[in-house]
Amino acid sequence: MHSLKTSIMQTIDLKLLKELTAIQDTPCISIYMPTHRVHPANATDPITFKNLYKKTLQYIQNNGLHEHEKLIQPLEKLINDKTFWDHNDEGLAIFVSLEDTQILRLPEKVQEITCVADSFCVKPLFKLYHENQSYYLLALALDDVQLYRGDKYQLQKLDIEDNVPTTMKEALGEELTDNHLHASVVQGAGLHGYMEKSQEEDIDMDRFFRKIDQAILEHYPIPQDVPLVLAALPEHHSHFMRISKHHNFSPIHLQINPQSLSKTALLEKIQDVFNKILEKRKKELLERYQLAIPENLSSLDIGDVTRDVIDGKVEVLCIENGKSIEGHIDVDERIIVQKDGQQTDVINELVRMVFSYGGSVIVLDEEEMPSETGVFTINRY
Asked: What does the pLDDT read at residue 274?
């Protein structure tokens, strides 16, 4: 008997996708359902799950899938597990194999899906994966510096006080010039005095920002594939960017006073930033597709797409959100066939193959797709 292993997750990462797509040629059950965070709406979630469980079990029994029946039976105890349903997020995904069972709480609503096959249904996870983004946020002001780690759904403040100076006075101490200790210029100093003050302030800011930058590099090394978002006033923003040794800044920043916003408001601002980045990437993707057409480096027809995927030609596979095509890919015959007794989906199999070959999978909404076939590709050759 395999165990129920529950993973409470909001970020669908590359490691998880690799684990799930690697499982194949063995009995697998996938269940997706929307859930609710609060009472009384979440009281309906066990009922929804019970109906999906019964529907899946009935399908398994009708098709004589005895190995799958052994897999699904341990899930029955979840129906009356009040503690389990009291901790819902927006969605739930359950993956059952001979090895174990993974239960993922998802941060967004998903369609109801039940899949009985010899691999997992992973399509819905790719939308969550690509539309989310882990990042660090540096909230920078002269008298308050904060570092956060976050994604689309949450923002976590890091405790940096022992490692990073959080004010200019703390960072520079006795090195701080008189013009920053005393904000006003001596009366009668004139233009010359003003220029000295301005130059000294720039020198102080330079020293302060360099100390912050170096401390973060030393104590909080950020992976190169994780962007650093800077939230600062415009004049501080340009100054910090000029002296920083970080090479993974986000292409879009928040030119604001971060002290004026709560953590919730900061998260909303960042969500706006990444939504703009996502829309820009989608636009660039569709432009690449248009350029690929006259070069015969793209496919729309499901048969052509299937053969290109089998041949390892596909660099980017774009699929329509929620679209399914019933069938199974016979790799040896290079055709789509029906597989008796199993709920196989051609698009899901294409997703798994492209991902395992090192390609990218992008999920677009129906109105964003250039055709009604549900798929298109950008090919390597």
From this structure: 87
